Amino acid sequence: MDERDAQRNRDASERVDRFTREGYKAAVDQAFEAQKSGMRLSRRFFENWVETLDDQAELNRRTLGSLQQLAKEQREVFRELSRESVDAYDGFLDSLDAYQEDISNLEERDD
User: Fold this and answer.
1) How far is residue 97 CA from its own chain's centroid?
2) Residue 43 Rama label (left phi>0; alpha psi -120 to 50; beta)
3) End-to-end CA distance of the chain
4) How many CA atoms lie within 13 A of 19 on its CB side?
5) pLDDT in tens, the chain (111 residues)
6) How far apart are CA 40 and CA 48, in angstroms?
7) What DSSP letter does each residue of 20-74 carry, written as one string?
């Protein structure tokens, strides 16, 4: 029985050793897969982040272009309003001159 017990012990020891190695290999494989998955996730996050930044930059460029166009249009409107105001003021001054001349002519007739 001694020889048989020793053989069983060796067989059991080999099975434990095999199961331990398989378990360790499975744990290492899972760790590597988790690492790969984490790297893929990080890469996707970075790629999406870069795309988001690109989209935001494009939106900012368009917004800036729209603001520049709006400022140009407002500048033109302001210039036109300024011209009209100056013309109206000149017309008012001309009417005062004309009124002054009319009054001067009336006074000269009355004399």
Assistant:
1) 60
2) alpha
3) 160
4) 6
5) 578 877 888 888 888 888 888 888 988 888 888 889 888 888 888 888 888 889 999 999 999 999 999 999 999 999 999 999 999 999 899 998 888 888 888 877 776
6) 12
7) HHHHHHHHHHHHHHHHHHHHHHHHHHHHHHHHHHHHHHHHHHHHHHHHHHHHHHH
